């Protein structure tokens, strides 16, 4: 009788373990499948939210383009705005104007122009630059006067490169070949090379 009771008592525990395994194993399998899928959905939702936020920002930027273009057109039509640029149809015309203006500045400063050449235009620049290279002779004061004229010019002009070389002859040669007045002029004489550029508005290469 005791052995029989022990056998009967062990049977319910075996059933419980069997039912527990039958329920637990499918549950673990479902969790193993659903959990990565759910995490992937969370990542997709976060990406969607970021993409939606970026889309809203881009839409706002696109919406401002017409007003920005209108503002740019108003500024380009403004005479004050044009005063900063050479208003010429081609870079060649702007270069010729720049060349003429610089030569006038050199003479106005009292220096002597030697040569002036228009440098090539980089068609990929926006806005494009027109550049010239000029060589002149003058004193230090005349060079400073010229640089001031370039700084004050309208349209704006900029000095890209500057090379200065003294051309003062030796004193013994000066005494033999020139008078005292001309030697005073030659003392401190400089040979200067300047690369000058300005911007061109509305140019068509």
UniProtKB/TrEMBL annotation:
Protein name in UniProt: General secretion pathway protein GspM
Residue intervals passing through the bilayer: 12-38
Alphabetical list of NCBIfam families matching this protein: T2SS_GspM_XpsM
A Pfam family of this chain: T2SSM_b
Superkingdom of source: Bacteria
Gene source species: Thiohalocapsa halophila
Keyword vocabulary terms for this entry: Membrane, Transmembrane, Transmembrane helix
InterPro entries, per database record: T2SSM_b
């Amino acid at each position: 009788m005791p052995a029989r009771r022990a056998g009967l008592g062990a049977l319910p525990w075996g059933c419980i373990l069997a039912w527990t395994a039958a329920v637990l194993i499918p549950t673990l399998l479902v969790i193993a499948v659903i959990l990565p899928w759910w995490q992937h959905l969370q990542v997709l939702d976060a990406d969607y939210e970021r993409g939606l936020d970026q889309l809203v920002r881009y839409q706002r930027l696109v919406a401002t383009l017409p007003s920005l273009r209108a503002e740019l057109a108003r500024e380009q039509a403004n005479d004050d705005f044009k005063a900063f640029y050479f208003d010429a149809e081609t870079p060649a015309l702007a270069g010729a104007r720049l060349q003429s203006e610089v030569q006038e500045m050199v003479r106005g400063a009292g220096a002597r122009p030697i040569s002036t050449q228009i440098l090539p235009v980089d068609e990929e620049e926006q806005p494009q630059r027109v550049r010239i290279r000029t060589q002149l002779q003058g004193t230090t004061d005349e060079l400073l006067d010229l640089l001031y004229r370039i700084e004050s010019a309208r349209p704006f002009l900029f000095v890209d490169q500057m090379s200065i070389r003294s051309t003062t002859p030796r004193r013994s040669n000066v005494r033999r070949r020139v008078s005292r007045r001309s030697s005073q002029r030659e003392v401190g004489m400089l040979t200067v090379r300047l690369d000058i550029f300005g911007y061109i508005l509305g140019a068509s290469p």
